[in-house]
Amino acid sequence: MTGQRFRLVVTSQARQQFRELRRSIASISGSEVTARNYMRALTDYIEQLPDFPLRGQAFSLHHPGMRIIGFRKTLLIGFLVTDDSVVILSLLSHASVPAHTRRSTHTSPRILPTSALTTEHPKHATRRACSHP
Fold it and tell me: How does strand 66-71 pair with strand 57-58?
């Protein structure tokens, strides 16, 4: 896994979660600008994963090679690293993680129940150059 650029793949589940997250942020904040800025920062962050795909914490309960990484202490990104791709499987907001699995209210959760990251098999994911998931 050295010297190569991995392809970024976003599953349909993750795309749907992106849309729901954007709507939720806009609704709660009352600002489309806030939602757009958050989603732009999240997209930029995710687009960097192919450069350094082995970041985050190994979390291979669903698929060998699965990892999780936090974003702004409010969101977990579940992704799978394959031989040539980084597959974004799921977005999990801190608010949707059961309270008993969190270490504190000020940090991202480290331990998730196995049902917390539901995923579709990467072969069924949509392949695309991710500029705006």
Answer: antiparallel
